[in-house]
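Escalated from tier 1: magnesium ion holo job.
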Amino acid sequence: MASFETSLDLRSPAETSALARTIGGDLKPGDVLLLEGEIGAGKTHFARSLIQSLLAMPEDVPSPTFTLVQTYEGSDCEIWHADLYRLSAPEEVIELGLTDAFDDSVCLVEWPDRLEDLAPAKALSLAFSMQPEQGRRTLRLSSINPRWAPLLKAISHD
Ligand SMILES: Nc1ncnc2c1ncn2[C@@H]1O[C@H](COP(=O)(O)OP(=O)(O)O)[C@@H](O)[C@H]1O
Ligand SMILES: [Mg+2]
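Tier 2 regenerated the structure:
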């Protein structure tokens, strides 16, 4: 059960990018974001905007659809972007180094259901939902970790 949660309307890709930059500015080593939602819901769009806002030098942020993980050099730690859609078994994330990265990197994980028991309880979950109107998404953010409470409060009053 999530103890901390809020829902937001994302009325355009630009609004999603702005939220990603706000959240990115609050992240510290060891923070994990689990990005949920169907194909095309906006997980990669959100991750790309967040990562680009943290890079000192502009760099492409491709979807890790086939590589499963892409890593970037942030200012205080590595940033890991994972897409686990094609993961064959949850244990594969240990070999990829992702479970270690959960301890000391900033991690953004698409298709986190593939982690099964390896999903860290400390994470913030972001569930993107498609809407009938083009360009619009809704986002539900939730966690059991009080670390996220101030951020959720701040973004729900923006
Ligand atoms: N409000 C929105 N937020 C994010 N993406 C949106 C929004 N509205 C439309 N889109 C579009 O939806 C697509 C999302 O693709 P992507 O981020 O790759 O999805 P996913 O990684 O969830 O499969 C992009 O083409 C993006 O421009
Ligand atoms: Mg994606």
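The chain has a mean pLDDT of 96.
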